[in-house]
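Reading a protein record of the kind used here takes little practice once its layout is understood. Each number in the token line that follows is a code from a learned vocabulary of backbone shapes. One such record is shown here in full, so that the layout can be seen directly:
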Amino acid sequence: MRFSILAGFVGATLALTVLPASAAWHGYVSREVGFSFTAPGDVKTEKANYAAQGARDSGVFRSSDNNIEYKVTVVNFTGSGKSEQDLIKEAATKFLAGKKVLSDVDARVDQNYGRKLTVDLPNNGGRSMAGFYYKNNHLIELEVTVLPANGDYQTPDTGRFVDSIAFLDSRVEKDATEVKLPK
């Protein structure tokens, strides 16, 4: 009996040491745009160029964990003259181009309209899920990509990331880190 208990304990300990280490999830908030999200590990901020409606500067918040890439892209569309729905539709169309669509649904978070999509990437490049929302003249795109090296395309982390977006101050985690768009 003792041997069985000891063998079970050793087996469980060994299994836990073999599993890949995962970064802790943490809350992030962009008060200047008015949204929050959660992501694993430390989020890096970078400036990027968003190629839609002409070239527009954008901010990207990015992290990576266990061969899964997490990215939030924020694009300022002040003065574009385009409606919220048109900008979301255009971004979703751009995301879907050349990919096998697995799901495409309307989404609503804290009274904000959006779309949520899941695709298989071409050439066995992995699987991506994205959510598109609009707030305070900004298009917000959350995108998570499970790379083939990970291979767990059913991981709940994709939905956890995309569904973590919130627009109400009451939903911001108490210890959330403020992220700023690059200038």
Remarks:
- The domain at 23-178 is CATH 3.40.1000.10 (Protein Transport Mog1p; Chain A).
- The helical segments are 2-18, 84-96, 157-162.
